[in-house]
Specification:
- By secondary structure, this protein is mainly alpha-helical.
- It folds into three domains: 112 residues, Fumarase/aspartase (N-terminal domain) (Fumarase C, Chain B, domain 1, Orthogonal Bundle), CATH 1.10.275; 227 residues, Fumarase/aspartase (Central domain) (Fumarase C, Chain A, domain 2); 111 residues, Ribonucleotide Reductase Protein R1, domain 1 (Orthogonal Bundle).
- Helices cover 58% and strands 4% of the residues.
- Helix 8 links the parallel strand 3 and strand 4.
- The structure holds arginine.
Length: 479
């Protein structure tokens, strides 16, 4: 069948067993070079470490190793420059690297695949890729966190309505608000770093599924690659994509957090809410309606998050029916991975711009706060202080709220006489003590919204992420 190509091995590594060339349609259907070329760096790094190991165990001479390493440098330069030849019959990135290596290194290149299969090779490439990209994503999330923490400091004392069910609930502070997102993205960052660590094992040596009779040094390869160790069962390792699921899970939770926040600001930047404004540079207009300023980036963060979840669910679906060990289905994992990663990265960078550029509409917020029932829970808790069981206090304040509503005045403007209609436990001058600011300041326990409590937690997160970098005195100096 296929010809030896100027000293190279036959077109297909398995040519010896076959009596006719692969059908062209099959080549097109089975290829993966069109997308797995993105793994070229990892593939070449793995090949370098593998070659050095083959030298250590005496399966390559010093000269052959040199030829291979120099050849791999040339192959790397081809990939980096985008000049490597794509041949669909070479299927995937692993065979392209090997073919080009043989082209440059000659007969020494024919030894690179000793004690190695594409099955352990692709697993290694993916693990190294996830290790690098999960760490890089964690850095991106830290960039977002930096902006969030600076806004938390800047708006630490701003009073805001807090919502549950999108209904006004209790007053909070701006620091508490941004602090909530800081907690979420801090967990996302930690989840990404854990995904990087979990991926960081070398499967090389698993071979196709059952190892090799050759005297390989797996630990040596792993430590050269900076891996924490080696996988412990080749039959498992070649078909294991748990580390990819973990990474896509981490990306999915990140995307959920971004999407929910984007939705919140879409609503908060409407005229009806009017709590948040994005700068013009982040808004888009309408081709027909001259007055429009649209928060398209927020809508797209919300919209694109679906790509990340669907990649995760596609990977689960891909894996759910696979018997041990490697199955070609697994080739379908890569595009899911790349799409989830690229989408999540784009969304983080847009949200970073939005956080940096947004401002609260403070006069509108003050207006909202003037006409609320946000102190209802505080009044009920005060009644508890005055000796009323909470369930009764809750009912009393419910009646007070209805009273205020029928008189069309905000709860905190009711007089002592109004309050006493519903309970004689209210002391003198109680009504005058009601204040939204005081309400926030009173909830100073750990996890509460009091500005000092929030300030301490923000500083703690800042120190954890940025260590000795001092927190900017004014966020405006940093922006
Ligand atoms: N392109 C393949 C993948 O992505 C590499 C492993 C192929 N192994 C095999 N025996 N066909 O999974």
């Amino acid at each position: 069948m296929s010809q030896e190509e100027s000293g190279e091995f036959p077109e297909k590594p398995w040519g010896g067993r076959f009596s006719e060339p692969t059908d062209q349609a099959v080549e097109r259907f089975t290829e993966s070079i069109s997308f797995d070329r993105r793994l070229w760096k990892e593939d070449i790094d793995g090949s370098r470490a593998h070659a050095r190991m083959l030298r250590r165990i005496g399966l390559l001479s010093e000269e052959e190793l040199t030829q291979i390493l120099e050849g791999l440098d040339k192959v790397a330069a081809e990939f980096a420059g985008g000049t490597f030849p794509v041949r669909i019959e070479w299927e995937d990135v692993h065979m392209h690297v090997e073919k080009r290596l043989v082209h440059y290194a000659g007969p020494a290149g024919l030894k690179i695949h000793t004690a190695r299969s594409r099955n352990d090779q692709v697993s290694l490439d993916l693990r190294l890729f996830v290790r690098r990209e999960a760490r890089a994503m964690a850095r991106e999330v830290e960039g977002l966190l930096r902006r969030i923490l600076l806004r938390a400091v800047e708006y630490r004392d701003l009073l805001l309505p807090g919502y549950t069910h999108t209904q006004q609930a209790q007053p909070i502070s701006g620091g508490y608000y941004f602090g909530a997102y800081a907690e979420r993205f801090l967990r996302d960052r930690d989840r990404l770093l854990r995904a990087a660590e979990d991926a960081n094992l070398s499967p090389l040596g698993s071979g196709a599924l059952a190892g090799t009779t050759l005297p390989i040094d797996r630990e040596g390869v792993a430590s050269e690659l900076g891996c924490a160790g080696v996988t412990q069962n080749g039959l498992d390792a070649v078909g294991d994509r748990d580390f990819l699921l973990d990474f896509l899970h981490a990306l999915s939770v990140l995307a959920v957090h971004l999407s929910g926040w984007a939705e919140e600001w879409v609503v908060w930047s409407t005229r009806e809410f009017g709590l948040v404004r994005l700068p013009d540079r982040l808004l888009t207009g309408s081709s027909m309606m001259p007055q429009k300023k649209n928060p398209d980036i927020l809508e797209l963060i919300r919209g694109k998050s679906g790509r990340v979840f669907s990649a995760y669910s596609a990977l689960l679906t891909l894996l759910k029916g696979l018997p041990l060990s490697y199955n070609r289905d697994l080739q379908e994992d890569k595009e899911r991975l790349f799409e989830a990663l690229d989408t999540a990265r784009g969304c983080v960078s847009m949200m970073t711009l939005a956080v940096e550029g947004m401002r609260f509409e403070e006069s509108r917020i003050a207006e909202v706060l003037r006409g609320t029932e946000l102190l209802a829970t505080d009044i009920a808790e005060d009644l508890v202080r005055f000796g009323v069981p909470f369930r009764e206090a809750h009912a009393i304040v419910g009646r007070i709220v209805a009273h205020a509503y029928s008189k069309n005045i905000p709860l905190e403007r009711l007089s002592d006489e109004d309050l006493r209609i519903y309970s004689d436990r209210f002391p003198e001058n109680y009504a005058a003590s009601l204040s939204i600011r005081r309400s926030v300041e009173r909830r100073a326990h750990v996890g509460g919204p009091a500005p000092d409590t929030v300030g301490r937690r923000i500083a703690e997160i800042w120190r954890r992420l940025f260590e000795n970098e001092p927190m900017a005195p004014s966020p405006k100096d940093v922006r």
